Amino acid sequence: MPYEDLREFLTDLRERGQLVQVDRSVSPHLELSLITKELNDRQGPAVLFTNVQGSPLPVVTNLFPSRERAAMALGVGVDDMRDRWIEAMRAPLEPVTVDRAACKEIIRDSAALTQIIPQIVWHERDGGPYLPFGLCICKDPDTGRRNMAIYRIHMKGGNKVGMKLQPPQHGGVCYAKAEARGEPLQIAIAIGGDPALYIASQAVTGFGVDEIGLAGRLRGAPVELVKCETVDLEVPAGAEIVLEGRVLPGVREAEGPFGEFQGYYSGASMRQVVEFTAITHRRDPIYLATYEGRPPTNTHVLQAIAREPRYFTQIRDYVCPTVKDVYVTLGGAACYHVWVSIHQQAAGQAKNVALELLKSHLVKHVIVVDDDIDVRDPLQMEWVLATRVQADRDVLILPGMASQHLDPSQPAHPSGLGCKMAIDATIPYGHDYDKVEFSPDLVERVRANWGAYGLR
Ligand code: MN
Predict the structure, then answer these.
(1) Which of 364, 349, 361, 365 is nearest to 427 (CA)?
(2) pTM of the shown model
(3) Angle at 325 between CA 46 and CA 86, to 5 degrees
(4) Are residues 329 and 377 in contact, defined by beta-carbon separation less than 8 angstroms?
(5) In which order are the strands placed within the sheet that holds 59-61?
(6) Which residue from 422, 429, 439, 315 is spatially nearest to 370, judged by alpha carbons?
(7) Which CA distances in Å does 253 have to 20, 124, 275?
(8) I need a surface site. Which of 187, 378, 388, 393 has the fewest CB within 10 A?
(9) Over 249-292, what HEC string results?
């Protein structure tokens, strides 16, 4: 059975010993952030803070420190997650609309924004408190197709926030269309709800694909939506808190700095402003948040598991049907580094595989290896780099490509113009290297006898 909301997931986590409660008074200024980061780094339990200074709401963080936790949220084994994702992309499950919703128990004026949302400062040099884990829902002004994603939100006091909506992110595309007409973009920000919504929000899809449909298939049942009060949008009925508002056309104000997902501060820039029009929430809302910053974080886990199935199907369908595994690394901020293993069918195929991935602005370095290598094992990856690569033959350098703009090593940062690299670490097609290994039969026999040797 899928989880109906955040609370059901928290109950399950508590029963499994994967939720801890902190009742001691904790400062929203860096202290809550650092406790969360430490738990994240230890792949520790989720945490419920019941006494955050200045906040009437309890705060939950560290829901997704590992692939295992994300798989648990979907009710699948970690090895089955890729197939579940591929199925969701193939056949999204449309949401249903309901009339009554938990997220509507209380309906308030937008002036209550700073009373409701805990003002959490996550990094020492951030421009202010940030709301890091809101599901931002909007519609394409041309087609009415819905989009759901997580964007960074700078709390500025009053009923306004700063937001980073940058194309080719889909929310940024929707906003650009609305602004070109001189209209605001209606937006709703849902906090909490079924964890599948958070997983789906990180999907790599074409513009126009509704992430809420993906969430439905990922969780195995349609998501229930309810109409908003002041904007023409629908939001997950089981959310804890919903902020309704409009991204103003023609308005830019300083937003940032913020400690970003690639591990560096991104400076302040003139960015979009959201003016809220209503707030709805449960009678006793829980505020869900997450630590963003230097990898690995919860967000990197969600991004890695969302990107791998997309890249896998791309390679399988267009370049190499015999692809074995695609690994988006956490150290690469679940963005820049993709390691791929393939069974080669033609000379040079590994380089084509690499180019298929490098066409994404997100991907910076690709390593392609043969299918005898486990791309998720750093020691094996280092071994093939050491023994199967001749740099003059196997390294492709591609300067001047549109790239993820937060990479601070780019020469004209933050222009987004960057250099990409592919490493073909496969054995040249038709050749073989004289690899030292034991025959599978012998390995199996010795392992079967392990106990008989008196070994454990
Ligand atoms: Mn989208």
Answers:
(1) 349
(2) 0.95
(3) 70
(4) no
(5) 19-22, 46-49, 59-61, 287-288
(6) 429
(7) 39, 21, 12
(8) 393
(9) CCCCEEECCEECCCCCEECCEEEEEEEEEEEEECCCCCEECCCC
* 209 Cα–ligand 1 center, Å: 6
CA 90 – ligand 1 centroid, Å: 15
Distances (CA, A) of 184 to 19, 138, 249, 433: 40, 11, 5, 62
Distance from the alpha carbon of residue 303 to the mean position of ligand 1, in angstroms? 13
254, 53, 52, 273: which is closest to 159 by C-alpha? 273
Q: What is the mean pLDDT of residues 87-106?
A: 97
pLDDT digit string, tens, across residues 258-309: 999 999 999 899 999 999 999 999 999 999 999 999 999 999 999 999 999 9
Distance CA 348, CA 336 (A): 23
- Written as one letter, the residue type at 384 is V
**For residue range 187-231, what is the model confidence (pLDDT) as tens digits?**
999 999 999 999 999 999 989 999 999 999 999 999 999 999 999
d(CA 182, CA 277) in angstroms, rounded, equals 19
C-alpha of residue 145 to centroid of ligand 1, in Å: 10
Q: Torsions phi, psi of 288, nearest 5?
A: -100, 130
Give yes or no for a cis peptide into 168 (omega within 30° of 0). Answer: yes
Residue 52 CA to residue 251 CA, distance in Å, equals 33
Could you tell me the end-to-end alpha-carbon distance of the chain, in angstroms, rounded to an integer?
38
Alpha-carbon distance of 368 to 386, in angstroms, equals 14
Q: Does residue 296 have a cis peptide bond before it, meaning omega lies within 30 degrees of 0?
A: yes
Structure tokens at 433: 């290297």
148 CA to middle of ligand 1, Å? 6
Q: Which of 325, 322, 326 is nearest to 349 (CA)?
A: 322
For the packed helices 81-90 and 67-74, what is the interaxial angle rounded to 10 degrees? 50
What lies within 8 Å, CB to CB, of 14 at 6+ separation is none
CA of 120 to the centre of ligand 1 (A): 27
Write out the H or E segment, with its range, that includes residue 45: none
Q: Is the peptide bond before 414 cis (omega within 30 degrees of 0)?
A: yes
Residue count (the chain): 456
- Tell me the CA–centroid distance for residue 189 and ligand 1, in Å: 15
pLDDT range class, residue 106, cuts 50, 70, 90: very high
